[in-house]
Amino acid sequence: MEAIPWRERLRQEDELLEQLADQTNAALRRRGEALKAGAAELGSVYAVAADIGLSWTAVARAIKKHTTE
């Protein structure tokens, strides 16, 4: 079995990193939308933060950064 040349291994890893970045961005958007829905359901960002144990600023920042108003 022949070893894969380093350039090919590097190309494969770069492709994997790009795929992972895309998946991370998609997950962050879905998470932001879920937090936004939680704020609508519970009435405020503060209520969501208290319910899930995060600071209200972290919740508000995630909604603002990863959703479209």
Structure commentary:
The protein is mainly α. It contains 3 helices and no strands. The protein has helices spanning 6-42, 45-52, 56-66. Helix 1 (6-42) packs across helix 2, helix 1 (6-42) packs across helix 3 (56-66) and helix 2 crosses helix 3 (56-66). It is rod-shaped, with a radius of gyration of 19 Å.
Per DSSP, the total helix count is 3
Give the mean pLDDT: 96
Tell me the radius of gyration: 19 Å
For the record, give the distance between the C-alpha atoms at the N and C termini, rounded to a whole number.
54 Å
Shape annotation: rod-shaped
Task: Show unreliable segments.
Answer: none
Total number of strands? 0
Q: Summarize the biggest pleated sheet.
A: none
Order of helices and strands: HHH
Structural class: mainly alpha
Fraction of residues in β-strands: under 5%
The helicity comes to over 70%
Name some characteristics of this structure.
single chain; 69 residues; mainly alpha; 3 helices
Topology summary:
Layout: H1 6-42, H2 45-52, H3 56-66
Helix pairs in contact: 1-2, 1-3, 2-3
Briefly say what this structure is.
This protein has 3 helices and no strands. With 69 residues, the chain is mostly helical. The mean pLDDT is 96.
